[in-house]
């Protein structure tokens, strides 16, 4: 998710996240004390019920959103070496603002005249 892909056939956060990704973020948002990838993996698979997602997919997504600033992390040593503990860097509302800023910024860069024309119509 190094870049945001917007699916206009969906609504809400599902326009930019798959179901499991949304559940995973909600698990991390609910755990202010932080989660390692194993705990996050177990929690999201429990939330998914009969479906499941691989641990590699969970780790890759956590790293992507950490890289985007949605989550923060601390690298700790533990059994088997180093691992990351992930913390919310923004809450769900902040994430929604982040997505809106990213999408509007992209539209501004790609279609500046058309974007401002639409914005002017909306504020009248």
Quick description:
Helix content is 56%, strand content 15%. The protein has helices spanning 19-30, 37-48, 55-68, 92-110, 112-123; strands at 35-36, 71-78, 81-88.
Q: What is this structure's SSE topology?
A:
Elements: H1 19-30, E1 35-36, H2 37-48, H3 55-68, E2 71-78, E3 81-88, H4 92-110, H5 112-123
Helix pairs in contact: 1-2, 2-3, 4-5
Task: From the structure above, extract its key features.
single chain; 124 residues; alpha+beta; Arc Repressor Mutant, subunit A; three-stranded antiparallel β-sheet; 56% helix
Can you walk through the features of this model?
This protein is an alpha+beta fold. The protein has 5 helices and 3 strands, in the order αβααββαα. A 3-stranded antiparallel beta sheet has the order 1-3-2. A hairpin with a 2-residue loop joins strand 2 and strand 3. The chain is elongated and about 60 Å long. 18% of the residues are buried.
């Amino acid at each position: 998710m190094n870049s945001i892909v917007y699916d206009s056939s969906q609504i809400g956060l599902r326009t930019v996240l798959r179901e499991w990704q949304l559940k995973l973020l909600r698990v991390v948002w609910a755990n202010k004390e932080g989660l390692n990838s194993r705990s996050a993996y177990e929690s999201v698979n429990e939330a998914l019920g009969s479906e499941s997602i691989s641990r590699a997919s969970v780790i890759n997504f956590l790293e992507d959103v950490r890289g985007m600033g949605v989550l923060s992390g601390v690298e700790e040593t533990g059994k088997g070496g180093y691992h990351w503990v992930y913390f919310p860097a923004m809450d769900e509302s902040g994430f929604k603002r982040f997505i809106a800023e990213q999408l509007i910024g992209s539209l501004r860069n790609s279609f500046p005249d058309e974007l401002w024309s639409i914005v002017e119509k909306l504020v009248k």
